[in-house]
Amino acid sequence: MIESFETFLAVAAAGNFSEVARRQAVAVSSVTRKIDALEAELGSKLFHRSPRRLALTDAGEQFLPRARRILGELAGAKEALHADDGDPRGLLTVTAPTAFGRRHVVSALASFLQRYPEIEVDLHLIDQIVDLSEQRMDVAIRIGLLPDSDLRATTLAQVRLVTCASPAYLARAGHPRSPEELLHHDCITVATPPAPGFVWRYPGVNRNQPLPVRGRYRTDDKDGMLQAALHGLGVMHIATWVACDHLRSGELVALFPEEFEAAPAAGLPAIHAVRLPGRSHATKARLFIDHLRAEIGDTPWWDRLQPGST
Question: What is the DSSP letter of 101?
Fold first, then answer.
């Protein structure tokens, strides 16, 4: 029965029998027999089958989340039974936004794997939101406001923004002494409307509304913004976790005093690690989230590395 459940999930994800048979290195008839047996056991057709397409029936759609939950709970129960038998082992799947993953998740995974030599990790760096259940992911790193869901979320850090520019740009265009002066500077902005927590807003400035800054260079890529600022194209307003190394080295200069760059209040964007309750590998997921949280620290290390910080 368990093999039939696993085959059902694989066929539902792949959308055809042939791909599942190829991955499992078995004949297509072996896959179809398992689905036939499961449908007979359940007394319901799970797939609409035709020469051109394979699609879930209404019964299949209803059964899909239950099958995932059953397999997840079974795997979690097995993992719990063997948790005390020795070091954690097996595969952990993690997804994270590309820029944050390259800068901060990979280094945390390196020390995590050194600590737990029997664990393997698949890391997927992608900027789109991944459905943990559908993609069989154990942990996702997400930045921003979390919608209501059944995911278990652990806050890793609040997002803090910094306004900065290169010494070359400041030597050419002058050093803005207040946020209002940014209206007369080239500002590196996003090509699409930013999330509410990432606008150019400063306490007590412009009635606490976003400043309508402008510039000749726009991009939705954080590394594209960073490189543009380093090359002197303008002023950048970005998360400290992106710019921290360059602020520390002096390649970028923070423009405003602390009162203008205060940490966001509650309800504004944060960095979270989320996992799906009942998902297999729950023990490894919790271990990694705890490890990542410890690596970042109560005050994120990228904020402790700012000039003048301790």
Answer: I
Between CA 290 and CA 112 the distance in angstroms is 10
Domain ranges of the chain: 2-81, 87-159+267-304, 161-260
Residue whose C-alpha is closest to residue 112's, from 304, 242, 289: 289
**Which residues does 291 contact at the CB level (< 8 Å), separation at least 6?**
108, 111, 112, 115
pLDDT score for 266: 46
Which CATH number is associated with domain 2-81?
Answer: 1.10.10.10
**Nearest-CA neighbor of 137 among 147, 145, 149, 125?**
125
Q: Is the pTM of this model over 0.85?
A: no
Please state which CATH class domain 87-159+267-304 belongs to. alpha beta
Q: Count Cβ atoms within 10 A of the Cβ of residue 246 and give its class: 0-12 exposed, 13-18 middle, 19 or more buried.
A: middle
Mean pLDDT value of segment 241-262 = 84
Instruction: Tell me the CATH number for domain 161-260.
Output: 3.40.190.10
> Whole-angstrom Cα distance, residue 120 to residue 113?
7
Question: What does the pLDDT average to over 200-206?
Answer: 88
pLDDT in tens, 12-68: 888 888 888 888 888 888 988 988 998 898 888 988 888 777 888 999 888 888 887
In 3D, which of 162, 115, 79 has the Cα closest to residue 291? 115
Q: Which residues contact 297 (CB under 8 A, 6 or more apart)?
A: 304
